[in-house]
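Our working data are protein records whose layout never changes between entries. Instead of coordinates, the fold is spelled out as a row of discrete tokens. Here is such a record, shown just as it appears in the course material:
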Amino acid sequence: MKIVLTNDDGYGEPGLITLRRSVQFMGEVVVVAPRAPQSGIGHRVTLRYPLQVDQVRTNHYIVQGTPADCTRLALKQFAPDADWVLAGINPGANLGSDVYQSGTVAAAREAAILGVKAIAISQYIGPAHELDWETTGLHAATILPLVMGQAQPPGRYWNINLPSPLDDQAPMAHAQCPLDKYPHRYSYTREAGVFRYNGVIHDRPHAAGSDVAVCFGGRIAITPLEV
């Protein structure tokens, strides 16, 4: 099996390194990741400018572009025979309406558009909690094979969110759940002629049984999405 890895935080970031370690036993891994952080860039693609790509080692490429660009290049140039595209692990949840602005989820969505199976995976960071990448990797290595083993109709891709705090024992409880429909609460603060975004993350409104409810309730949220 050949697996493409990408993210929206940039090559060399701990989430991508953790993801690679979690799946390296599953087959050949090809890493194609952005040079710079691309969080919140959504599904933007580069159409009018050339994309600079540097190969830093065998099967490792750094792209001066977006996460969706990385998926496109990977599947057209570096791994056209890939079986899966995995995007993440994002430091911070991508729940509910987050999926429409997330570069992580866009990388997986682009793969699904191109007919390749894909998963976006993120780690929620709760209030007063810190990331423990070792524990995150433990749960990623457990949950990813379970999701990858499920039936995959054309056009489907998966969005996984790990809860916070994580139990240091695997497996954790998980649930397949729908995408929450409620928008974030947010405001803007005006400062010297500019507007600064202020978002509410931890107490966002949500529907019972949704991905937000499942993840905030301490279970791994697994959400099927469609293109």
About this structure: The mean pLDDT is 93. Residues 31 and 57 are 10 Å apart (CA to CA).
